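Researcher: I'd like a structural prediction for the single chain below. Treat it as a standalone chain; there are no partners to consider.
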Amino acid sequence: MFKNYFVITIRNLLKNRVYSFINIAGLSIGICCSIMILLWVFDETSYDTFLPKSDRLYQLMVNAEFDGKINSWNSVPLPTYQAMKDADVNIKNAVVADWGGEHLLTVEENPILKKGYYVSDEFLEMFEFPLAYGEAASVLDEPSAIVISESTAKALFGDEDPINKIIRVDNKSDLKVSGILKDVPGNSSFEFDFLIPYTQWRQVSPWVVDNEDNWGNYSFQVFLELNEPINEAAVESSIQNMLIEHGEEDLKPELFLHPMLRWRLHSNFENGVEKGGMSDYVNLFTVIAVFILIIACINFMNLATARSERRAREVGIRKSVGSRRIDLIAQFIGESVFISLIAFVIAVVSAQLLLPFYNDLVDKQLSIDYSSAQFWWFSLIMILLTGLISGSYPAFYLSSFQPVKVLKGKVKVGKKASTPRKVLVTLQFGFSIILIIGTIVIYQQIQLVKGRQLGYNKENLITVDFTEEIGKNYQVLKQELLQSGAVEAMTRSNSAITSINSNNFVGWPGKPEDQRVIFTTIATEYDYAKTMGIKILEGRDFSEAFISDTSAIIINKAGLDLMNLEDPIGTELDLWGDKRTLIGIVDNVMMGSPYQAVNPMFMILDPDWTNVLTLRLSKSNDLEATLAQVKGIFTEYNAAYPFEYTFVDEEFQKKFTTINMTSRLANLFATLTILITGLGLLGLASYMAEQRTKEIGIRKVLGASVFSIVSIMSKDFSRLVIISFLISAPLAWWLLDKYLERYPIRTELAWWIFPLTGFIALVFAIVVVTTQSLKAAHANPVTSLRSE
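Model: Treating it as a single chain, here is the predicted structure.
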């Protein structure tokens, strides 16, 4: 019996090659899209799951009231590290860490820059990143130890055994390799090449020691391991008021726990409550994957039911010789599952070939793990699910034919199936219209934020990491760079112009007692505004001509609007318990998220608080020569470090990484969705033209024009597109309005997008149908009416 079913399936596929190709091609594209989307989804949802205790690990975070709302952040005072160990019996362990960064690692004459963390000695015991050599409980015990990854060991020592070898860190500390880490996977929240003990951090950074009893400096990361995840609420309750109990009453700060398995997908907080993050994109593309697969299945259903008349006699004969309806249902579903299997194999091969391009698109290293049992279970489920969804309606429909009527030729199955087909076509175009509208709106959102005024000139601006050696030679370095003509201006600051590393509170005359507003904090020296190209609206910049500028302050326009000072220059502002004289107002500068309004900001003159240099290169037709000249001077005064720089405009573009990826994926999958819809429509239009061959022949004999015949053929499909637009447009508006809610700076849902999309869908449908209508309209009526 099964052999018979298989033979019939193959015969039907070969006999109807065009429709078989359309069916299999549509399913293959749909499944391939779904596989590629789900590879990205699985990668995003797998973050940190490779760690054995990931369900018991948490980051300590703070909720505090200011700016008229509850704000959440993940930096805490250093004393909380030790306090957590005794805070609750359900806390098994605690770890403190810095924020990670690049450090110079040197072995003999081989210097390389690698990213690493200073961490307390419990880190590897808690997080259990796998070690190729060493014991997690002891490798970070000694202050002079360093644990490096396998790839770092290879880069520094080649094939030599690195254990107990000396690495010079930042050209000042000689550390001994105590352990080798296996390279950290790409789906880890921690990305690092080495770890250095917290005790070494204390030795090289006196400010760390100074803050070990300071409950007011929120500059550290603290992580906890609980005995059991079920104890999370109890622990939160016991530690919630710890900061208030230690004198931090002003902001009413409360500590809470953020589970490790939610770091990647649920990183955004609004008014003290989790408010999405990457989970929004994961959900969005999961829905798109389902939509695309459904559209591909709809194609199958439409063509299968449309061509059901060809198989009606087969059903009648089978029933007349004793076949039960359940047998016929099994046969037709089996055929659809077999077609699904063929389409799945083609889809996997296509996905494998496209993966290199797709990885560039999403900036990941995704791969299909054929050795994984999970992959084969997923494959089986997708094949069966696709086969069942696409074949269920045709199977039940075909098996319902009455053998007596079918064999007498009295069943007009094409008309009987027209209503379900119309519903399915309407659904197809509805999904396509939603995706097209979504693609247009996402593009508009990107253009809106990219077109915002930055408040500075990012062209020819580069940043270089600050080092102690640069600090010793800063003035002579700056002088030589300016005299060389390669650099127009240069300054140093606590953060790059594209990021915010510090926030603080400021007092001003007339400030309400209960008003707490966070100010972006820029510590800099002379020539900051000049180097960045920031416009000074009132007053002046810091100047070497004024010794008093060490107690001066500059604010931005957002800060001035908040303070509402009528005659601001010369006003005394309160900062950290001291009075500072306001000497200048600068234009708003977009340093943080381009999707949010610019925060109030103040600048102070503090050259000792420096993390980065910013240089404005002179305009030149030979940028490489200019950079080579700058490199030569840096090499002279910062010889231990390789000259590495970042263009500010490139760093600025990274702010759009996620939304750009969303836009590219939306464009790609919207295009493929339209292609799948077009394939199905082409096949259905072709079949409908074939079914109406005699009708068209009669119309031509009676004098109908080609245009009138094409119009008749196109009318039904045009009506369906219009109905699908009327249904999907309001749904698209609601979904996109919800999507844009995450952005304080957001584009408007312009009314013209919706009719434009409907028009595009209508034209597309008419063009596809017209290709088949013209073919039928130009056919010789003698051929189609010969048997009449």
